[in-house]
């Protein structure tokens, strides 16, 4: 079982819709969770972090964490074509060994005008 | 300029040559990391460092060497480049053990 799993996509949504990106992780020792956005040919950019169960909102983005289910998600409201990118879920290494993050393989999102 | 910078942006080298990729950050972040990103494999950790003079292996360290004599620099050396090391290499830094990373802009390395 992969440590951090994401659907590879592509996930295609129409402009203005809600895009829902999902991520599961295998180790209950993980405490920090991150979403990165990566445009084609660019480096990953941190867009959300979440540490507690529940929802965290930042503009059009909402991160959701459920530690009991070992599940973290990212919702993008009012999706725009500029949101088209690959979204990487990252989880801190269990017991925070050396600050390392474990990345999922990413979900490609395509927002159609 | 503040931030994390990688050089060169692009590099073509021949099999068997030694090549060094540079990474410099201006935040005095304790943690620094080297990843490679390949289609089908995602981001894979090569080496990381918790502080100056403290480095440790990641998931795919074979064929790579790192050093960290100063907090701000974390160079990655391919001792004898192989075609399988053709990849995009990202350096990242983090100021706290539980925080997210900031990535550099990457180096696209081609080994011919």
Task: Describe, in plain words, how this protein is organized in 3D.
The complex is a heterodimer of chains A (113) and B (112). In chain A, the strands form 2 sheets. In chain A, strands 2, 4, 5, 9, 10 and 11 form a 6-stranded mixed beta sheet that branches. Chain A is 0% helix and 53% strand. In chain A, strand 4 and strand 5 form a beta hairpin. Chain A has 113 residues and is an all-beta fold. Chain B is an all-beta fold and 112 residues long. In chain B, the strands form 2 sheets. In chain B, strands 2, 4, 5, 6, 9, 10 and 11 form a 7-stranded mixed beta sheet that branches. A 4-stranded antiparallel beta sheet of chain B has the order 1-3-8-7, with no helix packed on it. Chain A binds chain B through residues 31-32, 34, 36, 42-46, 49, 51, 88, 90, 92, 96, 98-101, 103-106, and chain B through 30-31, 33, 41-43, 45, 48, 50, 56, 58, 90, 94, 96-106.
Question: Any low-confidence stretches of chain B, pLDDT <50, length ≥5?
Answer: none
Order of helices and strands of chain A: EEEEEEEEEEE
**Category by helix and strand content of chain B:** mainly beta
What is the general shape of chain B? globular
Number of helices of chain A: 0
Tell me the series of helices and strands of chain B, N- to C-terminal.
EEEEEEEEEEE
């Amino acid at each position: 079982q992969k440590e951090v799993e994401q659907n590879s996509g592509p996930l295609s949504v129409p402009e203005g819709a809600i895009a829902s990106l999902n991520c599961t992780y295998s180790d209950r020792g993980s405490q920090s969770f991150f979403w990165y956005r990566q445009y084609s040919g660019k480096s990953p950019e941190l867009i959300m972090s979440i540490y507690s169960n529940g929802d965290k909102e930042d503009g059009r983005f909402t991160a959701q964490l459920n530690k009991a289910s070992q599940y973290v998600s990212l919702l993008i409201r009012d999706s725009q074509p500029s949101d088209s990118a690959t979204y990487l879920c990252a989880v801190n290494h269990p017991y925070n060994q050396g600050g390392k993050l474990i990345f999922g393989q990413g979900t490609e999102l395509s927002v159609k005008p | 300029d503040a931030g994390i910078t990688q050089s060169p942006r692009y590099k073509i080298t021949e099999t068997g040559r030694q090549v060094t990729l540079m990474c410099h950050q201006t935040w005095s972040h304790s943690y620094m990391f080297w990843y490679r990103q390949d289609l089908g494999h995602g981001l894979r950790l090569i080496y990381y460092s918790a502080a100056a003079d403290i480095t440790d292996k990641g998931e795919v360290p074979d064929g790579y060497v790192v050093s960290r004599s100063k907090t701000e620099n974390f160079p990655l050396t391919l001792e004898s480049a192989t075609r399988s090391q053709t990849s995009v290499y990202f350096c990242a830094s983090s100021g706290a053990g539980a925080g997210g990373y900031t990535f550099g802009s990457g180096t696209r390395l081609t080994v011919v």
